[in-house]
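Worked example 2:
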Amino acid sequence: MLITVLAAWLIGSQRPTRRMTGFVYFSVSNVLWVIWGVYADAYALIVLQICLFLMNLRRFKKNFKV
């Protein structure tokens, strides 16, 4: 959870490198939440994290469009 909070803080930065770091941290947190979801048999959590990752990936791609 701390990684997710740190990622959210970094995403809000004005600096592109911090935003990139935030995206990486969000991706890591998604993987960690999926691992927890598998351990806890929380399939809705797994689906949620996959959806959130795809939405973050979409925003990441739009962030670099010229």
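Residues 11 and 34 are 21 Å apart (CA to CA). The first helix runs from residue 2 to 11.
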